[in-house]
């Protein structure tokens, strides 16, 4: 049974910050791919825990500690259920970046002979291959580069086509008998394109490669069933899905988590410690050393319950309309180039673009002066920008609380950018623009 249509006015009333004005204009917040706004129920959940139930979890025997532990593990079950998983298959992290590093360092520990006897299955040999795509966020590139440098493995890259779609023919050439890990994004944070997970998994599984999915840009926007996607591991970030900062999740298939050695060690992840040896807890606690992000986990659970209450089908349908309006509108503006122009591709409401003759930073400041918040720069994804021949872009990203009027305000502002900066689009102007681009690289933000 489908969810009822989203009542966007009611949703907006749940988000206090959306009532603010910026530079004398009502705020049109179109930067949710960077970080989302938080509803009151999330803000209240964290504060309520700290005021009424705050205690160390999995430690004390007193009543307050037991209550805190129950709330903490109830939060795990809620967030795991939101992505289709069981509670024991969800590891709390401080964000998706930590989750990806956890996996990379755990594989490195296995390679070094550390961990459990069953961890040997993850050990790398010189010449083994770690595969990523050209569309990755830096957080899904750098940990694998570092792992390759430590182990003698080789980093290989699946190309994207000129339209931003993943080149599956090239993926079939790259993924082979030496492939040990295939790490790829579910949705590119630059292109907004939903990648074909099933096809990539189908290439990786026959060669025994681990599949690691970056679900940061899909978890807030589409109904998600990570076990159903068939990936071995996946990460997502709380602050991009209406939750708080400092919390994220690592999903793993049970047998994979049970075999991975720990990354961080210390308290909360052990069963027995002597000066001779240490025995570790089973997952997920094996990967949660130290003080747990208790209030953040409880607030993230409030966020997913909020999204579940709205219905992710309804959220996705509303955002799909915004995506069409955004993409069609930008494509109709002279001098605007869309990044990731693949026709017929499944997308979320995220579009990066460049304006001929005007640097992305200047476009962003122009929009900000009109109350429209967007992201500018390379969005922590410099390689995909280089592949598409640009140093920086403007990114507009919508979420459940955005309206068609907000998208139209942004489109109207973008349509006036070139005239404001006196750009005619002539060859001479373009030459000046490229020179300015080179100078602007020095101030490029990530």
UniProtKB/TrEMBL annotation:
Domain Aminotransferase class V as annotated: residue spans: 29-409
GO MF term list: cysteine desulfurase activity; pyridoxal phosphate binding
Keyword field: Pyridoxal phosphate, Transferase
SUPFAM superfamilies from the UniProt entry: PLP-dependent transferases
Cofactor(s) the protein requires to work: pyridoxal 5'-phosphate
Keyword Transferase: yes
Catalyzed reaction equations: (sulfur carrier)-H + L-cysteine = (sulfur carrier)-SH + L-alanine
Annotated EC: 2.8.1.7
GO biological process: cysteine metabolic process
Coiled coil: none
Function: Catalyzes the removal of elemental sulfur and selenium atoms from L-cysteine, L-cystine, L-selenocysteine, and L-selenocystine to produce L-alanine.
Family: Belongs to the class-V pyridoxal-phosphate-dependent aminotransferase family. Csd subfamily.
PANTHER family in the record: CYSTEINE DESULFURASE (PTHR43586), CYSTEINE DESULFURASE 1, CHLOROPLASTIC (PTHR43586:SF8)
The protein's name in its UniProt record: Cysteine desulfurase
Taxonomic source organism: Microbacterium azadirachtae
């Amino acid at each position: 049974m489908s969810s009822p249509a989203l009542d966007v006015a009611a949703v907006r009333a749940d988000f206090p910050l959306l009532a603010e004005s910026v530079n004398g204009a009502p705020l049109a917040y179109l930067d949710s791919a960077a970080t989302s706004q938080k509803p009151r129920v999330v803000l209240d959940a964290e504060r309520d825990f700290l005021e009424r139930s705050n205690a160390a979890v999995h430690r004390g025997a007193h009543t307050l500690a037991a209550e805190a532990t129950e709330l903490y593990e109830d939060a795990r079950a809620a967030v795991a259920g939101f992505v289709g998983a069981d509670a024991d298959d969800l590891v709390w992290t401080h964000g998706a970046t930590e989750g990806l590093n956890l996996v990379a360092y755990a594989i490195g520990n296995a390679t070094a002979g550390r961990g459990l006897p069953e961890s040997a299955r993850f050990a790398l040999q010189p010449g083994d291959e770690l595969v990523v795509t050209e569309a990755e966020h830096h957080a899904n590139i750098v940990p694998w580069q570092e792992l390759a440098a430590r182990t003698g493995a080789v980093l290989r890259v699946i190309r994207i086509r000129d339209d931003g779609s993943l080149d599956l023919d090239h993926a079939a050439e790259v993924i082979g008998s030496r492939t040990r890990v295939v790490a790829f994004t579910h949705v590119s944070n630059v292109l907004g394109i939903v990648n074909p997970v099933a096809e990539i998994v189908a290439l990786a599984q026959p060669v025994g490669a681990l599949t690691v999915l970056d679900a940061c840009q899909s978890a807030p926007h589409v109904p998600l069933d990570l076990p159903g996607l068939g990936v071995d591991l996946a990460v997502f970030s709380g602050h991009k899905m209406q939750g708080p900062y400092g919390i994220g999740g690592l999903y793993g298939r049970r047998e994979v988590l049970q075999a991975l050695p720990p990354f961080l060690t210390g308290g909360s992840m052990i069963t027995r410690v002597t000066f001779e040896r240490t025995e570790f807890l089973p997952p997920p606690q094996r990967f949660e050393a130290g003080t747990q992000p208790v209030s953040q986990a409880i607030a993230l659970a409030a966020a997913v319950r909020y999204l579940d209450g709205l219905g992710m089908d309804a959220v996705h349908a509303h955002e799909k309309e915004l995506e069409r309006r955004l993409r069609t509108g930008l494509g109709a503006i002279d001098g605007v180039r869309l990044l990731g122009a693949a026709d017929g591709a499944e997308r979320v409401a995220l579009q990066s673009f460049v304006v001929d003759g005007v640097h992305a930073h200047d476009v962003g400041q122009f929009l900000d002066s009109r109350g429209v918040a967007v992201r500018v720069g390379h969005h922590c994804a410099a390689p995909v920008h280089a592949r598409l021949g640009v140093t920086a872009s403007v990114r507009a990203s919508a979420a459940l609380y955005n309206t068609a009027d907000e998208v139209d305000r942004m489109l109207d502002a973008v349509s006036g950018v070139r005239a404001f900066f006196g750009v005619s689009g002539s060859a001479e102007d373009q030459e000046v623009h490229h020179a300015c681009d080179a100078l602007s690289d020095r101030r490029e933000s990530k």
